[in-house]
Amino acid sequence: MNVPDAVHPLPVELDTDGGTRRFWPCAVETDRGLVLVDAGFAHTTDQLEAGLAEAGFDLSDVRLVFLTHQDGDHVGGLARVVSETDAVVVASEHAARVVDGSEPPRGSDPDDDRYEPVAVDVALAGEATLDTRAGPARVVPTPGHTPGHVSLYFPEESFLLAGDAVTAADGELNGPDPTFTEEMDEALASVRTLSQLDISRTLCYHGGFAAAAGSDRMAAIAVDADGGR
Q1: 225 or 86, higher pLDDT
Q2: Which residues are in the Metallo-beta-lactamase domain (predicted)?
Q3: pLDDT grade, residue 112 (50/70/90)?
Q4: Is 187 a residue whose pLDDT tops 60?
Q5: Cα–Cα distance between 102 and 23 in angstroms, integer?
Q6: Is residue 2 domain-resident?
Q7: Looking at the domain assignment, is residue 137 inside a domain?
Q8: CATH code at 92?
Q9: How far is 5 from 151, CA to CA, in rounded Å?
């Protein structure tokens, strides 16, 4: 998988009635430890730890957890990670209100079971930059899948950690999943925003790595989706 040397995909798997599904959190090296990008489910944290060990790290090396958004497949494992690491948690302002329990997850009843709330240490109002060993990582607002969705862009590596802003299948980059996207028009506008960046490869939370993921492909996704609406 052609990702930057300082980026370590940590795939976790979930068995469902429809078969095994794979999700793609990852860790990014910094001079102060690891940034964990999304935390998976509560019951996949052991897989996360195993992936870290395979990459030569321990869960205790995680210093910061960066959340692309607030859905349970990205945040369910956060409470355990934070309890074992005291990592700083970073999310968008919108996501933070769900992660910390101030608001319920989308589509749920406030009385329903949900993942354990966790305090967000840094709630982002817009763009920001993280210093990493893969170069500066720019936080790019990519709303649509959820209102506060964000992605991480590494300009020195022409690399994108997309979260759920786009998806992949068999190595090919695809658009946002309409089944789980709250505002498709906004999601496609976010894809057009990404198409203006110098991106040549992308890691999607759903679908994994896509090598053919350049600006032209991003623009084509938005055009094709607009044409079919």
Answers
A1: 86
A2: 22-206
A3: low
A4: yes
A5: 26
A6: no
A7: yes
A8: 3.60.15.10
A9: 19
Q: Domain of 181?
A: 7-227
What is the rounded CA–CA span in Å between residue 55 and residue 9?
9
Residue 176 lies in a domain: yes
- Number of structural domains found in the chain: 1
Residue 1 in domain: no
Which comes out higher in pLDDT, residue 225 or 150?
150
Q: Which two tokens stand for residue 177?
A: 């999943």
